[in-house]
Amino acid sequence: MGFLWSLAAIFAGYFIGEIVRLALRRVLPKVYYPYANELISTFQLSVCVFEISVIGRFYNPWIALWCSFVLLTVKNFGFVFEGALANPCGLLEDLVYDQGWLTDNVAKIVFQVLGALLSFPFIQMLWLSTWSELHYQQVKKGLRSTLDVSLLYGFSIEILATFVSTTSDFLSRGTLRRFNPVIRSAVCVLLSIFLSETTGTWMNPALATAQTFVYCSRKEVITEHLFVFWLGPIIGTLAAIEMNTLFLKPSVNTQRTKSRLAKKIKQSSAKNHRNRAVNSNSEQKERLAKKA
Predict the structure, then answer these.
(1) How many other C-beta atoms lie within 10 A of the C-beta of residue 213?
(2) Is residue 181's pLDDT more than 50?
(3) Cα three-residue angle 102-228-137, rounded to 5 degrees
């Protein structure tokens, strides 16, 4: 019965998110909708992770891992969330490759964190409304930090896990791109199996903040949390992107150079065109003055 309550909570969170998404899509201008989409998608993802955590702690960890694999696969295939990343680290690739504005990505990260934080009051309301023994135990024990190792060790684990996960994404974008979503999901689950007794291997700063820090009764200080669960995954992601740039995708630097050169040529051409127009007007005025 408790497992069915968990599934019901997951579907309830997703359904609520889709209703809000539908309403905001009609109300908000298109330029603002991506931010709302990140908020809603992170809310939905966080609700799912909360329930999967309950299943893993009080029901069966292997079923929880299977649920995690299914959730990640569905997300990676793009069947849910309408293309939203729901992970601050997912925005770094576009930022590094000059495909997104810094302010735009920072705003999306803020909305991702907000969506994750909003998920707990919702899921807690559901936990208090059920007659499930699993959820009764969850409410009784509350949330706690998943940092069960030293600070530097946890920092290294988050870097390693995020680096391996992101690298698996880059490696499977070629001939294996058809299986890319499944490979990424499998790698994340395997990392969770082997490294679960360390930091929880979140690899997602927004979810880590909502689920292991803000609402926890036992937690690390904020600087430690930011060091392990934010700086660690960010460094791991950037390291994977740099490796992809140098070894897996050497054409990136060439493309970026060509793009910058084309931009400079375009700007120079526009400037020359304006100068010619100004000179032409000046000459025309001089001729008219001489005739007069």
Answers:
(1) 20
(2) yes
(3) 115
Min mean pLDDT across 30-44, 75-89, 152-166, 259-273 is at: 259-273
Q: How far is it, in rounded angstroms, from Cα 75 to Cα 49?
A: 13
Q: How far apart are the C-alpha atoms of 25 and 291, rounded to whole Å? A: 63
Mean pLDDT lowest for which of 57-61, 111-115, 234-238, 278-282?
278-282
- Contact (CB, 8 A) for 169 and 87: no
Q: What pLDDT digit, counting tens, does each position of 136-156 carry?
A: 999 999 998 999 999 999 999
8 A C-beta contact, residue 105 and residue 95: yes
Give me the DSSP letters along 139-152: HHH--B----S-HH
- Give the chain's mean pLDDT: 88
The model's pTM: 0.84
Listing DSSP states for 183-248 in one string gives: HHHHHHHHHHHHHTTTT-----HHHHHIIIIIT-SB---HHHHIIIIIIHHHHHHHHHHHHIIIII
In this predicted structure, what is the pLDDT of residue 277?
54
Q: Give CA separation, 212 vs 103, 152, 198, 264, in Å.
A: 27, 18, 13, 47
Angstrom distance (rounded) from CA 33 to CA 257? 32
Q: How far is Cα 54 from Cα 47, in angstroms, rounded to an integer? A: 11
